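Thread: Newbie trying to understand structure tokens

Hi all, I'm a second-year student working on a class project, and my supervisor (Dr. K.) asked me to get a predicted structure for one chain before our next meeting. I've only ever worked with sequences, so writing a 3D structure as a token string is new to me. If someone could post the tokens and maybe explain what I'm looking at, I'd be very grateful. Here's the chain:
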Amino acid sequence: MTGSGKAAGVILHIDGHRQELVVVKDALQGTTRTSAPLEFGRLYPDANPLRQSAFQDFRFYLRKLSEEEAARLPVEDYVAEVVQNRSRRGPKTNFIRSAIFYFAQRDEASRQLKAQISPLNEELDRLSKDGAIAW
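---
Reply by user tm_fold:
Sure, no problem. This is what the structure looks like when written as tokens:
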């Protein structure tokens, strides 16, 4: 939300995927300052804070991120940790996560192949709408 005064300006991504939000009150008025602490996963005050929540991190940006930037966030920082030898995970996990990032974000051939999957699935759904496809 970049000073629009509207809650509809808030964009939420979870694990790089944009989430649909239901805006209850869209006309924000006054200040956002409050004496209540900023807490996620509960209503204030609540006797049971974060009762079924687990968050790794929250990030606030002063500009709108592109969908591509938001999609990279869950893996790009992890790869930076691996490259800088700061990752505490094992080599197999590091390799897998780095490969996922590379093939999803940097390898053009993989990106082109991935782009073909959705149309092929749609065609398969169309062909099998009246029953299973016989070979």
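A couple of things are worth pointing out once you decode it. The first strand starts at residue 12 and ends at 14. Residues 1 and 10 are 5 Å apart (CA to CA). Feel free to ask follow-ups in this thread.
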